[in-house]
Amino acid sequence: MGEIAEVRVNGIACGVAWAPPYRVEITDALHSGANEIEIIVYNTAANALAADEHIRRLAAESETRYGRRFRMQDLDQAMATVRSGLLQVPTLVLRPSP
Fold this sequence. Notes:
Strand order of the largest sheet: 2-1-3
Oligomer: single chain
């Protein structure tokens, strides 16, 4: 929910992984010999808002002044689950040829 990754192989865009199981088919971009795999990881707005101290301070000041009138998409709970970057080593899964 807070992670998006674009996958390129040998300069060819293969797809975007944005939800479990985070898989992208790369077969058509592979060639014999060495291949270059590039994974570009993006943060989402949820991560950016949850980690932004300025936004958190404004939300707290607003709540102090006006009371809790709304929740900024549960911003206070989002910090507990903020993730960013690759959280494990990517793996390639080889499937046998038909």
